[in-house]
C-alpha cells in the first residue's frame, strides 16, 4: 500500500499468483461542505460536512472487493491496482495529481463506478463515448464609469453592459451551436451596485459552460470571449475574463464499455443493464480514461421505501447500502473476466446477493 499519492490519495496493489494484465479500479472518498440533515444513526458527526454523493459507499465497495481479491490472490492472474482517490468534488480534482504520481503506470485497463440515488437499486447504466460533460467555469469583471443616478450621460453603466453581455451569451447555445450537439451556459452569480441612486462602475458575474464534444468545447470558449469582449468594447467598458477549464469530457472506450455491459448482463440480467443518456455533470474519472482504456458506470442505489430518493449534494442524501453488493460483484466479475482470459477465480468465491 502507498499513501499520500498525489496529495491524499491511497493505492493498494494485489499481485496475482499468475502473470497477466494489470487492471485499475478507482473509488473516490471525499465529502462535501453540507450539513447532514438525515435522521439516522449513521449521519455525519462533523458539523457542516457530510457524504452527500455516495463516495463513502464507493470506498466501502472497493475495500470489500480488495478483501475478496486478497483472499484469492493465488487464483488471480495479473495485478489489481486499487485507487482510492481524494478531491473529486473540488477542481482541479485528485485524479490529475495521482496520475502524475504514477498510479496508472503499467495499467492496461481501468474501471470505476458511481452510486446513483436517482437510479433504482439493482439497475446499472453506462454508455460508450461521451457520458459526462466537460465542466468549465468563468468569471467576468466589467469596469465602467460610475456616477450620479440622475446623470447617466456622464457614466458607463456597468450593470447595463453586463446585462447586455449575459443576454447575448444565451444566444450562443440557441443560435450558434448545432441543435444536434449539446451545450449549457449558466450564469450563476451577479454582483453590482451599492446604492439606488448611484450608477455602478463595476459588475461581476460567474457561471459555467458544459459540453459533450471537444470541438463544441473549443467553440464555446472562443465565442464566449468574442461576445463578451465585443459588447464591452462597443459600450466603452473594459473587461477582464477569467475562463477556467475544468474536468474534461468523460469518454468511455467502446470496447471496454461493451465488455462491461456483457459482464453486467450476465450477472444481473439484460433487463437490469441500461444504456443511459449523457449527463451534463462533471467527473474527474475522465482523466484516467484519457490515459488508459476503460469505462465508468452508474450503480443504482435509490429506494423509495427507505427514503433514498434525494438527489446528490442534498442535505438528506442517502442510498440503499445493498447497492454496494451490486457494484462490488460487478467489479469482481470484471476482474474475473480479464483473469486467465475469463477462466478466473470467482467459482471459488461466494458473493452474497
From TrEMBL:
Report the top EC class in one word. hydrolase
Q: What SUPFAM superfamilies has UniProt attached to this entry?
A: Bacterial exopeptidase dimerisation domain (SSF55031), Zn-dependent exopeptidases (SSF53187)
Cofactor annotation: Mn(2+)
Taxonomy, superkingdom:
Bacteria
**Which stretches are annotated as coiled coil?**
none
Q: What is its EC number?
A: 3.5.1.14
- Kindly provide the name given to this protein in its UniProt entry: N-acyl-L-amino acid amidohydrolase
Amino acid at each position: 500500500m502507498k499513501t499520500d499519492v498525489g496529495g491524499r490519495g491511497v493505492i493498494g496493489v494485489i499481485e496475482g499468483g499468475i502473470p497477466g494484465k494489470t487492471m485499475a479500479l478507482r473509488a473516490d472518498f471525499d465529502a462535501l461542505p453540507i450539513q447532514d440533515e438525515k435522521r439516522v444513526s449513521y449521519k455525519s458527526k462533523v458539523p457542516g460536512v457530510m457524504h452527500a454523493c455516495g463516495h463513502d459507499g464507493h470506498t466501502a465497495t472497493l475495500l470489500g472487493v480488495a478483501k475478496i481479491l486478497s483472499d484469492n490472490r493465488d487464483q488471480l492472474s495479473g495485478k489489481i491496482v486499487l485507487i482510492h482517490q481524494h478531491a473529486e468534488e473540488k477542481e482541479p480534482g485528485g485524479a490529475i495529481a495521482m496520475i502524475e504520481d504514477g498510479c496508472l503506470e503499467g495499467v492496461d485497463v481501468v474501471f470505476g463506478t458511481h452510486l446513483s440515488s436517482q437510479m433504482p437499486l439493482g439497475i446499472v447504466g453506462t454508455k460508450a463515448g461521451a457520458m459526462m460533460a466537460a465542466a468549465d467555469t468563468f468569471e467576468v469583471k466589467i469596469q465602467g464609469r460610475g456616477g450620479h443616478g440622475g446623470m447617466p450621460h456622464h457614466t458607463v453603466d456597468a450593470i447595463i453592459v453586463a446585462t447586455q453581455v449575459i443576454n447575448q451569451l444565451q444566444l450562443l447555445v440557441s443560435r450558434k451551436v448545432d441543435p444536434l450537439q449539446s451545450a449549457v451556459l449558466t450564469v450563476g452569480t451577479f454582483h453590482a451596485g451599492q446604492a439606488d441612486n448611484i450608477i455602478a462602475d463595476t459588475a461581476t458575474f460567474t457561471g459555467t459552460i458544459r459540453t459533450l464534444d471537444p470541438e463544441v468545447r473549443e467553440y464555446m470558449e472562443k465565442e464566449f470571449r468574442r461576445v463578451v469582449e465585443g459588447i464591452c468594447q462597443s459600450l466603452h467598458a473594459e473587461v477582464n475574463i477569467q475562463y477556467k477549464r475544468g474536468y474534461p469530457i468523460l469518454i468511455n472506450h467502446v470496447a471496454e464499455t461493451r465488455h462491461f455491459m456483457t459482464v453486467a448482463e450476465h450477472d444481473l440480467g439484460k433487463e437490469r443493464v441500461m444504456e443511459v443518456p449523457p449527463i451534463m455533470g462533471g467527473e474527474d474519472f475522465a482523466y484516467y480514461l484519457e490515459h488508459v482504456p476503460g469505462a465508468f458506470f452508474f450503480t443504482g442505489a435509490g429506494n423509495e421505501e427507505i427514503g433514498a430518493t434525494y438527489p446528490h449534494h442534498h442535505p438528506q442524501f442517502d442510498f440503499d447500502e445493498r447497492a454496494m453488493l451490486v457494484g462490488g460483484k460487478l467489479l469482481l466479475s470484471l476482474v474475473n473476466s480479464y483473469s486467465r482470459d475469463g477462466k478466473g477465480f470467482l467459482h471459488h468465491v461466494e458473493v452474497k446477493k
